[in-house]
Amino acid sequence: MEPTNDPALLQAVLDRVSNAGYEALIVNIDCRDIGHRERDYRNGFTAPPSIKPKTVLEGALRPRWALGFHHQRRHCLPQP
Predict the structure, then answer these.
(1) Higher-pLDDT residue of 80, 48
(2) What is the chain's Cα-based Rg?
(3) pTM, whole model, 2 decimals?
(4) If you ran DSSP here, which 8-state letter would residue 36 be given?
(5) Fewer CB near the terminus (10 Å): N or C of the chain?
(6) Rounded to an integer, what distance in angstroms lies between the CA atom of residue 1 and that of residue 13?
(7) What is the pLDDT of residues 1-48, one digit of tens each?
(8) How far is Cα of residue 47 from the mean position of the Cα atoms in its chain?
(9) Rounded-to-integer distance, Cα 40 and Cα 29, Å
(10) Short-list 66, 46, 70, 47, CA closest to 56
């Protein structure tokens, strides 16, 4: 389900869950914050990803990875 602020749509979802007999609803919220992992600091991991000379070199050495990254880029970067 896409994010929404529409109260009617949210109520429709809650009604559907209730009518299906569920007693609980778990809501997952994804945010663009990185975890504080030592390996991420050591490897220079950033979110959203930044394109640096090292990233370009890694992409040239791993073309399949670079192509996959390019196709998934819309999921990694903020939408306009």
Answers:
(1) 48
(2) 19
(3) 0.36
(4) -
(5) C
(6) 10
(7) 666 788 999 899 889 989 999 988 887 777 666 778 888 888 777 777
(8) 10
(9) 22
(10) 66
